[in-house]
Amino acid sequence: MQQNQPSVFIILVTWNGKDDTLACLNSLQEVDYPSFQIILIDNASTDGVVKAVGQHYPNVTTIQNNDNRRFAGANNQGIQIAMEQGADYILLLNNDTEVKPDFLKRLIDCAQSEPQAGITGGKIYHFDQPDIIWYAGGIVNLARGNIAHIGIRERDENQFNLRCDTGYVTGCCLLMSRACVEKTGLLDESYFIYAEDADFCQRARLAGFRLLFEPKAHIWHKVSSSSGGKNVPGGLTWYKIYHKTRSTLTFLWRYARWYNWLTIPFFWTGYALKAISYIVISRLKAASSERITLQDSNKNAA
Length: 302
Hints:
Layout: E1 8-14, H1 18-28, E2 36-42, H2 49-56, E3 61-64, H3 70-84, E4 89-93, E5 97-99, H4 103-113, E6 117-126, E7 129-135, E8 138-141, E9 146-149, E10 164-165, E11 173-177, H5 178-184, H6 196-206, E12 210-221, H7 238-255, H8 264-301
Parallel strand pairs: 1-2, 1-4, 2-3, 6-12
Antiparallel strand pairs: 4-11, 5-12, 6-7, 6-11, 8-9, 10-12
Helix pairs in contact: 1-2
């Protein structure tokens, strides 16, 4: 590692995601930040990802679990290793992402620009629609019972180009400082899936740290790969809806005040209707597109 550059440990977690993981590691080879290491935590995969990574990327530290420790447990393994090895910063990065070469330098510059910065995140796009935003900051609204991304599904027209404080940083790409980990602790493994990142951010904020959004750090995310929604129109599956609902309720039970529960049910009714409408419309659009494609194929065959 070069001197005078904060050391960064990038943690990737995989579960039967060999192709995505290799693509992510290939992307990370182009990163221009000079002082980083990669730790891959494998959650008992059966697709040969550990062997493939060892063959193509021998410098990656790989930990192979005998069971699936899910997002929080596996990332905590990586965080603990990074802390023991003297990391200045730790980056949680989804294995189904690809990055711009300067993304890490942008995140570190942002993190070091503010003395109380504890967590920093970048602008994340849909991989299959590279100019469509997936995350441009986060909202945590306890009165509405809402944990949400800013800018989701909007085309990027420079409307979210200012560095700013944010409600939470998604675990898809979450840079945490050593001081933040020492004071905040690890991710909460009682969450089955989802909201671990929001919970960690909430605890960091309560511990006195700032959460920052850096729009110049660009990442592309293959949305819903781990939850089975990659090939589902709209990306929403009932599995994802169930677990997001369950985890969000856990988060709200911990942090919402009693009076927030007077308004949360009304807003959640609206969220449910919106989600159902989105799923139905997405399925109808996909079915219509398939029908048109089939008709065109039949015409060409004739």
